[in-house]
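note to self: dont lose this again. the chain is below, predicted strucutre after it. 206 aa total, dont forget to put it in the shared folder this time
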Amino acid sequence: MTTTLHPPAPAVLITHDAVPVVAATLAAAFDNDPIFTWVAPDPALRRAGLPGWFAVAAAGLERHGRSWQSAACSAAALWVPPSTEPLSEAEGVLLGEATAPLGAGAMERSGVISAAMEAVHPQEPHHYLWLLGVSPDQQGAGLGTGLLAQYLTQLDSAGEAAYLEATSPQNRRLYERHGFEVTGVIQAENSPPLWAMWREPRGIDG
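---
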């Protein structure tokens, strides 16, 4: 059955200069996300600390040249190409340091859930969607769908697979509409579940 996707929103590659704005967009998008809420349960510390955390993440992934933002940076998608580590060792250290301001226990919880994700990360070549977020005031306008469809169209043309972890049932349903299939449930200690999702490339007729 062919799935009809929204037309891609106008998008541009994220540059280093755009990282602060991208970080602010992603921090707002993930403020109430189940996983980030579990890692950093204090709302005030989470709100204050997430922009710095996302700034480190966005700066590290920007260098891969696969991170996109919509017009006015109301949405952003950070991709990692095949056979590539998302962050260098030094960037990983910086991300850990940026996790500490999220509150007591945040580094430990982040480490636990990250280890659980890495344990089931597929070895087959794939493009990895590390993060996709939309500003709360723009959610429902198709911006995230547009960014996702744009990249997946390229992967279909190249015959390449994609992988991600959905952090909520709502996100899981979005990705299922775009051809991703759940391959497993990831959970660490008392964390909310994440859904490991894989997508084979589609033919030109869907």
